Amino acid sequence: MSALPETLVQQLAQHFGKRFSTAEAIRTHHGHDESHFPDALPDGVVWPHSTAEVVDIVNLCRAHRVPLIPFGVGSSLEGHVLATHGGISLDMSEMNQVLAIHAEDMDAVVQPGLTRKALNAALHGSGLFFPIDPGADASLGGMTATRASGTNAVRYGTMRENVLALEVVLADGRVIRTGGRARKSSAGYDLTRLFVGSEGTLGVITEVTVRLHPLPEAVSAATCSFPDVASAVQTVIQTIQLGVPVARIELLDALTVHSVNRFSKTSLREAPMLVFEFHGSPASVEEQAQTVQELARDNGGEDFEWATRPEDRTRLWQARHDVYFAGLNLQPGCRAVTTDVCVPISRLAEAIAGTQQDIADSGLTAPVVGHVGDGNFHVLILTDPDNPDQIARAEALGRRIVERALALDGTCTGEHGIGLGKRDFLVAEHGEGVAVMVSLKAALDPLNLMNPGKIVPTTDC
Amino acid sequence: MSALPETLVQQLAQHFGKRFSTAEAIRTHHGHDESHFPDALPDGVVWPHSTAEVVDIVNLCRAHRVPLIPFGVGSSLEGHVLATHGGISLDMSEMNQVLAIHAEDMDAVVQPGLTRKALNAALHGSGLFFPIDPGADASLGGMTATRASGTNAVRYGTMRENVLALEVVLADGRVIRTGGRARKSSAGYDLTRLFVGSEGTLGVITEVTVRLHPLPEAVSAATCSFPDVASAVQTVIQTIQLGVPVARIELLDALTVHSVNRFSKTSLREAPMLVFEFHGSPASVEEQAQTVQELARDNGGEDFEWATRPEDRTRLWQARHDVYFAGLNLQPGCRAVTTDVCVPISRLAEAIAGTQQDIADSGLTAPVVGHVGDGNFHVLILTDPDNPDQIARAEALGRRIVERALALDGTCTGEHGIGLGKRDFLVAEHGEGVAVMVSLKAALDPLNLMNPGKIVPTTDC
């Protein structure tokens, strides 16, 4: 972990002018994400404008054996963008153009710095939308790199299903194009899926082709309160098992609803709640809503409250997306140790019940919220950053939650990724498979310069 | 290309008894697939019964530097199972058990030798089905290895979307488990998707966990004839662009319909035809059918003929699945040079029109059939195996069809895979990406013993 070689600083300054910075405030911003990990500052930040410039930066860094960390908007939750080995933070935010919208093929080609909301704004009037919606207005490059998903994944899939093609700059400066715009292909190894979820450790994503979806003809959304989390989860399980093509089905526990009311000025009943959204033709939406209402009622759900106007729905989902900040707001000055697990749907009730018992036992404050249609839920464990004992207890609680999820045939992360925080769990989950990941990393990045220290255990560079 | 070392023969005979054979008839069967490539016999065939036995075989072969070629049912269409470098054919057909059906999670764990029809038979009464349906009753291991799809992919996805987890024996004898039963995961590199479509070149698949889907409450199927292929294709494009969740939408050109009538004793009108199937609730199926009928009528489609009884639908789809054999039957004794391309849906009309002009110019007989909802179509170019000039013309025609698809932003294979037949096109399509594939192959199979010569260009072993 050393500062940059003087020659490299000169070369970057000469090439990028004001688009290269070693100012501390800039480096601090880029050495920080939404996780609870301590900041780890890069030695410099560069803002490329083109794939050719990314190639230049990769080649310069390689010549000097300096690590490179791609940076989107800094909303990662497992320390992905922290420069734990120093090096250059590659801020992609100025490569944020929509390169093409192929409305007739329902795809778009974008630069990696474009955010998901900016893409949807660009799609306005096309009759299409891009459904993947992590809480933050993340960049599409970052979402690709972490295999992100969100509330719509139960219907529309995750970044795994919605990235059709990529352009990637490899560690040796080669530029490859993976996948293509055809909806399916059996042409060779699936390099697209190898880079989706690779967290910047295999190369720098410089272009993303994503699937778009037709805006549904009709949309309806509703909330429904339940006497306890188990009844809500049972409703979710039955909905999925019946094959109802629900677009969103989200769980908020009572504490989360309370935090949302405080933060978003809503007046939701402070009980475990499901938030549903149905997409389709008017008749299909009506039919789905009918089926789910019956299931909810059988499980003790209170009457549905419908958000019929688009602006009410927008407010409802914005409140849902803000649960992270709403949760933090419960204890001013706190930070959160988050965890994000996903289990087969049949194990969901057990996973959440056990998690809630663990939270109670821990004495900590920890809202639970989840994309439960996929079996995925998050726990936001609030901690005082100046209280090491509390942080240790939060981390222990997070471990117990993940260990239970693994024991229930689940995964240690449904959508946040491995980053720094879950490398040990990756080994617990995939065993010898991690050795294979190490081999792939070594094959594509033999000098270990691409976001070193993330995902796979590596020696320092 | 040499026969097996005597020690290896002794070891395999001792270990496997009658489950090891070097008989010529057996080797001939295993050195042959449904492609037009000349037979290439393995030097021996082994039928393992367990993952541990696969490990033993892999270790024995590696010790003697002998190649290994996994074999399912031999229905590959690009020479995947041909032992072009000699070696052992690993016949997985006796590893054909259903290991678990998790109805509540809608997944099943199976051995790779199980065929898709056998899986669906095992699911009888569960309310679930496995939708992926290449023409042949292929093995699930083989379907995983070629990233297969079929008529249902437009609604349910391909093997890429429907394989959740794998067990794989690597070239060095290690056994890894990839993925998991959770519906989504961001835990590290997507090894599952790396092995899906790897055609036996990265390891031997010994267990597959697949997604299942709820049997639709209502199903309806119909055929509709069109004045020309362009009108049929236009109907498909509009259906997809409207977001109608059609389950199947298949094109047969007039020659294909003629071949089906001859082979399957049907009496379909011998004009370009679309075959539709709709899945959903009764109301949703009715609504989908209504929408598509209107689109078809606007494009000159003749009235829909409905296959309302389940046995009529089964007969209709069996006839569709038999088009390969129906086509061959047009010229007794012929073989087929097949090609399989996939283009973005907006380019489909142009791709098929150009292809039909090429066929007319070639003077060859070549039915066209396709999973057009995905932009995927096949051409079955009939050739007399004793007429080298005709074979050369067929190959030239196949090349033109693929070159056009690539020029239209498509892929050289939608679902058949690369095998031997499309290695040059893989380079044309993916360029430098193929060098990355070579690196991955070298990282996982440094001795090049796993199905050598397929997908990636390799030196002889």
TrEMBL record, chains A, B:
Catalytic EC class: oxidoreductase
Family: Belongs to the FAD-binding oxidoreductase/transferase type 4 family.
Record keywords: FAD, Flavoprotein, Oxidoreductase, Transit peptide
Pfam families: FAD-oxidase_C, FAD_binding_4
Cofactor section: FAD
PROSITE patterns found in the cross-reference section: FAD_PCMH
Protein name: D-lactate dehydrogenase (cytochrome)
Coiled coil: none
Transmembrane intervals: none
GO terms of biological process kind: lactate catabolic process
Example of a GO MF term: D-lactate dehydrogenase (cytochrome) activity
InterPro entries in the record: FAD-bd_oxidored_4_C, FAD-bd_PCMH, FAD-bd_PCMH-like_sf, FAD-bd_PCMH_sub2, FAD-linked_Oxase-like_C, Oxid_FAD_bind_N, Vanillyl_alc_oxidase_C-sub2
EC number: 1.1.2.4
Domain FAD-binding PCMH-type: 38-215
